[in-house]
UniProtKB/TrEMBL annotation:
Keywords: Hydrolase. InterPro entries: AB_hydrolase_1, AB_hydrolase_fold, Carboxylesterase_BioH, PcaD/CatD. Residues 23-245 form the AB hydrolase-1 domain. The gene is pcaD. GO terms for biological process: beta-ketoadipate pathway. PANTHER family: HYDROLASE ALPHA/BETA FOLD FAMILY, PEROXISOMAL MEMBRANE PROTEIN LPX1. Coiled coil: none annotated. One of its GO terms (molecular function) is 3-oxoadipate enol-lactonase activity. Its EC number is 3.1.1.24. This is 3-oxoadipate enol-lactonase. It is an enzyme of class 3 (hydrolase).
Amino acid sequence: MPFLDLPDHRLHWCEEGDPRGAPVVFAHGLGTRLELWEEVVAALPQKFRLIRFDLRGHGGSEGPPAPWSMGALVRDAEALMDHLALRDCVFVGHSLGGMIAQALAVKRLDLVRALVLCGTATKIGTAETWAARAELTRAGGMEAVAAAELQRWFPRFAQKSRPAEVARDMLLSMKDESYLAACGAIAGTDFYATTARLTLPALVLAGANDGATPPDMLRETSDLMAGADFVLLRGAGHLASLDRPEDFARELGAFLDRIGHAFHEPAPRDPMGGCGEGCGCGSDHDHDHDHNHNHNHHAPHAGCGHSH
Ligand SMILES: O=C(O)CC1=CCC(=O)O1
C-alpha cells in the first residue's frame, strides 16, 4: 500500500490503469474513503492512469491534530500530485473532494485540466447545520452520525442496500476527532466567487435522489462555470459512484472522450521557473487558497491575484 509521508501525517493512495496514460485523480467526500471509487475505476478504460487517495483522517490516511482548514486539505492533494509528478489531470471530486477539486483548479491549473464534480457545491450547509453535526458527533459518536447520514445519502428504498452497508462501514471506520476536524474545514468554506471564474472543461453529476447535496445545488454549481456539462443520474443518491457505478463510469468515460483526455499532451513545466503555479509570475509566495488567491488562467482578465 503506497503512502506519502508529509510533515505531520501520511496519506494513503493507490494507482491503477496505464502508468503512462493520461491521469485521472479521484478524491472522495466526508466520512468515506478511496473504496468509494472502486467500481467506477474498474469500469473505466484502463488506458488512463487512475489515482485515488484517502483524505487526511479517512481510510488509510492519518489525521493530524485539529483544526484543519480547507487550504490544508487542498495542500495534501497538491503534495500527492506533485510527488507523483502529475500534470494536466482530470480531477474527480465527490462532496468534500469536490470542494478540494474547485480550489485546486483555481490554485494549480497546471495540475488540473478538467473537473468532474459530484455531490458537491461551492458551499455545503451553514454554520448552524455544521454546529449541529458537531454536537451529534460529540454526543453519539460515529454510530449516531452514520444513522443520520444514511438517511440523507440514500433514498428510503435504498437504505438497507449493499451500498448503504458499505457507506455505513466507511463512516464507522473513522475517528470522531477526524470527522469533527473535516466538518470544521467544510463549515468555513464558500467557493462561490472563485468557482464562478472557472472556465476549464467540467462535468457536474447530480444524484437525482441525493438528500445531502440535492440536484438543485449541483445545477447551481454547474451554471456558475462557463460551459460545464450537467448530468442528472437517475436512481442515484449522494454516493452516486457507489450506488450507480456503471452510469457514473459511462458519463465520466464519455466526458474523458469528449475532451480528448487520452490524447492530451501535458503542458511542459514553465521554463522560466516562476512560482510553480503555472502563472509565470516568478514569485515564491504562498498560494494558499484560504487567503483568496486566484489562479484561473483560463479567465483572460482575472490576473493571478498575487501581491508581487
Ligand atoms: O455529509 C454530508 O451530509 C454531506 C457532505 C458534505 C461534505 C461532504 O463530503 O459530504
